[in-house]
Amino acid sequence: MKEFFLGLRLLLGSGRGNRLRFLLMVAGSAVGVCCLAVVLAIPGILAAQDARKAAREPDCANGRGSCLSVTGGGLALMRLDPYGPESFTRIFIALGNGRIDPPPGLPVLPGPGEIFVSPRVHELLGSDPGLAKLLPGKEVGVISAAGLAHPDELYAYVGVSRDEVKGGGHFSGFGDLEARYPTVEPSTLDILRFTLAGVVLLPLAVFLSVCARLSAASRMRRLAALRLLGLSRKGTQRVNAAETVAAALLGAVLGLGAYWVVNQLVSRVGLPGFKWYPNDGALSGSTVLVCLVGCPALAWFVGRAGAKKAAANPLAVRRSAVEKPPRLWGLLPLVPGMGIVIGYCVAGATGHAPSETSLSSILMPLAVVLVGAGLVLTLPILSRALARRVARVTSSLSLGLAMRRNEMEPGGALRVATGLVLLVYAASLTQGVLIELDQVSKNTARVQLYTMPLGDMSPREEQAMKRVSGVRGHAVLASSWTDPNSEKWPNSISAVIATCDQLRSMASVVENCVEGRSARLMIPDYSINEFSKVGRRFPFQLQNAEGERRFVTVQVPSRTIRYHDDTATQLAGSGSVLIPPSALPKGFRPQTRATLALISSSDPDTVRSVLEGIAGVDPTIEVELDGVDAAALQQITVIKTLLAVGMVLGLIIGVAAYLVAATDRAVERRPQVTALTLLGARPRTLQAVQVAQVVLPLTVGLVLAVVIGKMAESSYLVTGGGAVFWDGDGLPLLLGAAVGVVVVAALGSLPLVGRRIDPELIRRD
Fold first, then answer.
1. Measured CA distances, 257 to 232, 264, 283, 291, 673 (Å)
2. Please, which of 3, 40, 545, 755 could form a disulfide with 287 given CB 3.0 to 4.6 Å?
């Protein structure tokens, strides 16, 4: 403890400059801890939202999932639909004779014709009249915060009669252990955590280390003097660690206070696509402990490691001995990491992309960590090698001086450039994550396909669905009847019941279609149904409005139609049979696996209008949107927002680390700059030296980050199982950002060469 208090006394009594440096260390630690708290609070926010979602789940509802319960006095039906980039959840409730407690957020359950809506839906009902078609009834109340995942959630409880809930699940109450549709799926949450760790936590560790080593050279000379006066080796390290721990601890307290303010402000304003209640962002005890203990602990180890040289060889420090060149062991993490990355890239280029296996889930994160660590440790080696080569061949005085300084002090490149280099590297990986997630739920086709169970609508409703505004084509899809207990009809084929005009309104390519005659649909480059062979017969089960059933046998025709539509998955499979409506008995419709298919433009406003029109016919009908997953859309929006937050935090940390390191390095080099000035060097020459010293290692690091980052991104996409392996859309932005970083770094280096000459700085040299 004596050494600890000695370090504090030296801090308080070592002059205004050291106290100012201490305040800068505190401010840097506060920024870092605030960013760390933001990252650590995200899982808690998501968990709080999912807990409220689980508490309101009906114990049985058959919407978008199986319902096994046959008991319970009430009926519940869940409908989850897209509303732009968001998901809109509606719970249809039909009360029974028994008493059912309302879910959290509701005073009572809605009766027939009554609706409870979230505050956001309440606002939209005033601006979007078509939204009322999704909510038949009169608004009688607003759902409170206890029943909503977040303030902007689109959620509604709709009271209906038991006859209106077609196939609703029996339920007796609300509440489940897990949310049916979590804010972020567990597997995706793991990807998010890993990405945020790369984008924020790695640069944060570098930033905190940089803050803990401010004015390292002058501090090392002071510690070397203490060592020469008889202080022990470990005592010298403890003296240095005392100052860094005090700064880190005070910075941690201020950082937690700053996070509280940020959480209160941002949670009320919200982020694009992601809002939360202020209490959800409250830090847990473990998070506070990590910030208050982890950051000072990191500062302790950094402080002790920083004083190791002064404690071991104080004379070399006092005499400013030349640093030892960096060892080649820094390349060790990069070699195996690049081996894994290159292997996956080659596998994707040769068409042997591995499926998502447990091995890939281990190797890919390992490769990302190894490459990131190797990128950092390689910078001093490459900077020194390049500086030596340039210094040998250049005839420029300023460039020669800059390169010789980088050759003698390669560790300076690591301190200045690491934060920004890691940021560019992490940006490439983030782009890969976004590309993979975009492939999950986004409809990239020019048209949007809607399918609905034909058995859930009457013939009158079917005709009304076809006339919904925005619908430009319709057809009935059906499968032949199969008897699982008989060997005569074990197989099945698909059929499209439509006229040629209807088929042309659905597809972009329809050739050789003759009105009133059946034919096989042949889709180029698609495999044909193995059971669809000319001459084979298949039965189709039909039913009329009175419930009368009839079988019609369809023979696979020899006539073919060349067919192709613009939907994401093709309306009908190759080998499906086109059946003219006139071939069916009047008043009868297919019953076995029959659906009504509608097509419209994929424009978001059109899709929303069509969904509202369908709801105007039957608000409880289940609509499947081809290529669109409403729950996944909401998740993608949340993930994009959180990744954007991570990139902003990473940018703040990277820029702060650069500014701190570059400024500190310039201050530490004031004796050398003063000596060169007294020897006759002009200010422009010294400014050129300073710019070259910063720009060269930064440029080398950024080039490596862009190249290796794009390779790591491609290898990640190869292992993700998606259709996109190589993406160049984000490359211009990445290169522009890298060039901008270099320009800003160069301009920021110009004022760091002072105009005032102070010979006192070199008095002892």
1. 38, 11, 11, 12, 40
2. 40
Q: Give the residue with greater pLDDT, 761 vs 24.
A: 24
Residues 6+ apart with CB under 8 A from 361: none
Assigned token pair, 77: 């039906």
Q: How many residues does the chain have?
A: 765
Write the CA distances from 486 to 482, 491, 672, integer angstroms: 8, 10, 94
415 φψ region: left (φ > 0), alpha (ψ -120 to 50), beta (else): alpha
In eight-state DSSP terms, residue 174 is B
Kindly state the percentage of the chain with pLDDT values over 90. Answer: 16
Whole-number Å distance between alpha carbons of 421 and 371: 12
Average pLDDT, integer, range 17-29: 74
| Cα–Cα distance measured from residue 5 to residue 239, given in angstroms and rounded to the nearest whole number | 8
Residue 507's alpha-carbon distances to 477, 598, 746, in angstroms, are 14, 12, 57
Q: What ranges make up the beta strands (E) of 585-710?
A: 589-590, 595-601, 624-625
Burial class (CB in 10 A: 0-12, 13-18, 19+), 6: middle
- Residue 648: CA count within 13 A, CB half-sphere: 9
Whether 138 and 114 have beta carbons less than 8 Å apart is answered as yes
Q: Which helix (H) or strand (E) holds 239?
A: helix 233-269
Distance CA 581, CA 588 (A): 10
Query: Do 456 and 448 form a contact (C-beta atoms < 8 A)?
Result: no
Structure-block tokens of residue 360: 């890939």
- Structure token digits, residue 708: 């290796």
Residues near 317 by beta carbon (within 8 Å), at least 6 away in sequence: 220, 221, 223, 224, 309, 310
Considering the entire predicted model, what is its pTM?
0.78
Residue 686 dihedral angles phi and psi, to the nearest 5°: -65, -35
Three-state secondary structure string covering 558-574? CCEEEEECCCCCCCCCC
Geometric angle at alpha carbon 189, from 720 and 193, rounded to 5°: 95
Q: CA–CA separation, 644 vs 641, rounded Å?
A: 5
Element (H, E) at 743: helix 731-749
Contact predicate 602/552, CB 8 Å: no
pLDDT digits (tens, 9 = 90+) for 733-746: 777 777 877 787 77
Gap between the Cα atoms of 39 and 27, Å rounded = 19
Query: What count of other Cβ atoms lies within 10 Å of the Cβ of residue 1?
Result: 7
Tell me the per-residue pLDDT of 643-653, one tens digit each, with 9 for 90 and over: 888 878 877 77
- Pick from 151, 122, 120, 190: which is nearest to 48 by CA? 151
Contact 184, 90 (CB under 8 A): no
Residue 759 near residue 674 (C-beta atoms within 8 A): yes
Quote the CA–CA distance of 82 and 88 in Å, as a whole number: 6
Are 103 and 144 spatial neighbours (Cβ–Cβ below 8 Å)? no
Across the beta sheet with 577-579, the strand order is 509-511, 560-564, 519-522, 577-579, 494-497, 473-479, 595-601, 447-453, 624-625
- Stated as kind and residue range, the H or E segment containing 86 is strand 86-94
443 phi and psi, to 5 degrees? -85, 115
Rounded CA-CA distance 60/496 in Å is: 34
Beta bridge partners of 74: 171
